[in-house]
């Protein structure tokens, strides 16, 4: 099959991504620091232990990492797992899945940008309250308003887009610097909590008092005893929000200098994420004990977090701000990696003639400028939603079910490749992950924590419409692209018999 099926002979993307950028990209994707904030602990079940669930989640995700490492070693192309699905499984299915994932991701990035102000606000509130600086508390209340959240989120996202437009390499640099800062500050926070373990109950008392979250006398009797079953119920939180998001580095594989760097960009971030989440939550349990920690998580999980506790445990203003900066850096890293990854998926689908060819054009700095501008426009549009309807916007978090369906599909593609190439380990890993993601899809749909369904079991109409609409629009885009290209004498179904885009 001739390469002229595609937009051009070569993508033009440069192989400038080294091992550090490769690792930091996926580490930002998995966002351990955000998991340690308030995306996990407020939702835990009675009787569960978060750090133990985190260990189980890491173990269950290792087969997925093997699939990604194996396939990226054989097929390392721009678009990563989109190429695997569309070439190994089915072309139109690959388009529908990748488009739905990008729409879900864009909504998530927009919400992250909007609620970046909540991370800033939490830092300002904690420092201002603990140090008696009323102006910080007042500033915190101000930036939490919808209009300031929109402006802060929009400007932050536009700043990241501008960096990527100017030069592709600068985009990676932004991710790497942001994630390194995140890592260092997380370790600082861990050290602060660790050295306070011997006298934790005394050291944390002022924070509990000022925040009005001190447990009542005899609270321990109200805490459900530890149960392994209850711990398993926490597993989906980590398995859906944190661990499986390892597709970032494979999505830019054609820009990475060596294939082994891509593989390391899958495994190392997963292990680091596991270490950070397990250790971060483990330190809180070691410091406060089971009953106290679970009481605070379940009753005050949006105030009592790894980050706020670390800030509260030190009276050193410099350390307080360093730790606070760490939380903000993790939020920033999500947006920085997201800009890169979104552009590469759209680039790959445009190279396959599904999206307009303009999205494959590169600037002198090697940046897909028009793809980034498309991303900016789409994200700013999504950013309006929390201003118009706060509850309607947060309902879009439930669209994370698209990710579970997507990863299940990737696992199926891996299984087919393993069967055809007689790779028993790949086939076994794929079968395990297919079953695992079926379970996680069920959890994402039925558990109200994930916002797809209401407490009464009925699906949230906004979330349901968004999810179904994403898949339907993806199918329509493929159908329209097929018609348009057929008039040019190109049957795009033949494109998926070839391995590029690259």
UniProtKB/TrEMBL annotation:
It comes from the Archaea. The chain crosses the membrane at residues 49-70, 147-166, 172-197, 218-246, 266-292, 329-348, 369-389, 395-417, 424-442, 462-481. It holds the Pfam family AA_permease_2. GO terms for cellular component: plasma membrane. It is found in: Cell membrane. It is a multi-pass membrane protein. InterPro entries: AA/rel_permease1, APC_superfamily. Keywords: Cell membrane, Membrane, Transmembrane, Transmembrane helix. GO terms for molecular function: transmembrane transporter activity. This is Amino acid permease. It comes from Candidatus Acidianus copahuensis.
């Amino acid at each position: 099959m001739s390469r002229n099926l595609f937009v051009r002979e070569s993508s033009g993307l440069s192989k400038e991504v080294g091992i550090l950028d490769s690792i930091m990209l996926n580490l930002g994707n998995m966002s351990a620091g955000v998991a340690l904030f308030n995306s996990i602990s407020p939702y835990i079940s009675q009787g569960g232990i978060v750090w133990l669930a985190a260990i189980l989640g890491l173990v269950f995700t290792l087969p997925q990492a093997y699939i990604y490492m194996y396939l990226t070693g054989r097929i390392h192309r721009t678009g990563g797992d989109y190429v695997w699905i569309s070439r190994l499984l089915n072309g139109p299915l690959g388009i529908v899945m990748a488009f739905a994932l990008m729409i879900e991701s864009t909504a998530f990035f927009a919400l992250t940008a909007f609620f970046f102000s909540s991370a800033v606000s939490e830092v300002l509130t904690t420092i201002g309250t603990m140090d008696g600086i009323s102006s910080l508390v007042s500033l915190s209340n101000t930036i939490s308003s919808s209009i300031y959240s929109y402006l802060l989120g929009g400007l932050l996202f536009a700043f990241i887009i501008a960096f990527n437009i100017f030069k592709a390499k600068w985009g990676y640099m932004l991710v790497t610097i942001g994630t390194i800062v995140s890592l260092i500050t997380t370790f600082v926070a861990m050290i602060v909590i660790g050295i306070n373990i011997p006298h934790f109950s005394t050291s944390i008392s002022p924070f509990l008092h000022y925040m009005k979250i001190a447990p009542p006398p005899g609270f321990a009797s109200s805490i459900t005893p530890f149960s392994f079953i209850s711990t398993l119920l926490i597993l989906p939180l980590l398995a859906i929000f944190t661990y499986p998001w390892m597709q970032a580095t494979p999505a830019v594989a054609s820009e990475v200098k060596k294939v082994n760097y891509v593989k390391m960009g899958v495994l190392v971030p997963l292990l680091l994420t596991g270490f950070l989440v397990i250790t971060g939550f483990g330190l809180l349990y070691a410091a406060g004990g089971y009953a106290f920690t679970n009481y605070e998580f379940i009753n005050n999980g949006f105030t009592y977090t790894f980050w706020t506790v670390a800030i509260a445990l030190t009276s050193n203003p410099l350390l307080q701000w360093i730790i606070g900066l760490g939380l903000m850096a993790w939020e920033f890293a999500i947006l920085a990696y997201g800009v890169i990854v979104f552009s590469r998926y759209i680039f790959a689908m445009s190279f396959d003639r599904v999206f307009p060819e303009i999205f494959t054009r590169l600037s002198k700095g090697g940046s897909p400028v028009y793809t980034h501008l498309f991303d900016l426009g789409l994200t700013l549009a999504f950013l309006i939603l929390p201003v118009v309807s706060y509850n309607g916007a947060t309902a879009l978090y439930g669209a994370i079910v698209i990710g579970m369906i997507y990863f299940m599909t990737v696992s199926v593609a891996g299984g087919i490749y393993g069967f055809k190439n007689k790779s028993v380990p790949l086939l076994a890993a794929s079968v395990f992950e297919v079953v695992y993601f079926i379970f996680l899809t069920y959890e994402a749909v039925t558990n109200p924590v994930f916002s797809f369904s209401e407490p009464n079991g009925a699906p949230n109409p906004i979330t349901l419409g968004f999810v179904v609409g994403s898949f339907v629009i993806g199918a329509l885009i493929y159908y329209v692209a097929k018609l348009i290209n057929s008039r040019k004498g190109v049957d795009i179904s033949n494109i998926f018999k070839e391995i590029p885009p690259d």
